Amino acid sequence: MVADVDKPVQLSDRAVVRKGLAGLRQEGLVPAVIHNHGQPSLHVMGGELELGKIYRVAGKHHPLELHVGSQQFLALIKEVQFNPVKRRMQHIVFQAIRRDEKVEAEVPVKLIGEVPAEKVGLLVLHQLDHVEVEALPKNLPDELTLDATKLVELHDKLTVGDITPPTGVTVLTEPDHPVATVVETRAQVAEEAAEETAEVEETGEESDGAENAENQDAKSE
To answer: Is this structure's pTM higher than 0.85?
Structure first.
């Protein structure tokens, strides 16, 4: 089931810190912290299953309404830590934001349309899947798109500069940063290398043959 990220996220105050965090995680809870505009950070916790669903949809770009008892916050997810072995969520950092102030966020980039280069056996190398943007919370897009039909031939590429952001959104990532580039597959590269080796060997044999012939002519003289 996909999480509804426009519904309030219910969190609880957390008194447990440091060594006690392992016990919380064993109970299926994720420790978190809310940074709030220079005020003391608020230590909270929430269910691992619910927060995992929310993160998969909201990422680091969709504003969330957090409820902690009687307190309410509008926030973005700024950092998520996972256990490197079990891949279970370990900790979340929320950043409280204001509706009337611009914020910076990571927004996913998606290629739209069929890729002509792939139809002729070439490969598209994806080099960037998120960009940094600045906008009011209400204007933050869930994704930014690029026209994949422009990837036709070897070395064709799409860059951040090819993105057309919606009104009110400024892309902060360098415009010349590549997002996707058309390259050869490993098999094609290996085949070309083999052909080049064969050409070098053939050229070498021809040179040796010519040299031997010259030596024979010199001896006969």
So the answer is: no
Question: Is residue 134 a contact partner of residue 165, using CB atoms and an 8 Å limit?
Answer: no
Gyration radius of the chain's alpha carbons: 28
Q: Are 117 and 151 in contact (CB under 8 A)?
A: yes
Would you call 46 exposed, middle or buried from its count of C-beta atoms within 10 A (0-12, 13-18, 19+)? buried
Q: Is 6 left (phi over 0), alpha (psi -120 to 50) or beta?
A: alpha
Specify the DSSP element, H or E, that contains 74: strand 71-82
**Model pLDDT for residues 162-221, shown as the tens digit of each residue:** 999 999 999 999 999 999 999 988 766 666 666 666 666 566 555 555 555 555 555 555
Q: How does DSSP classify residue 117?
A: H
pLDDT tens-digit profile of 9-21?
Answer: 999 999 888 778 9
CA torsion angle 180 183 186 190 (round to 10) = -160
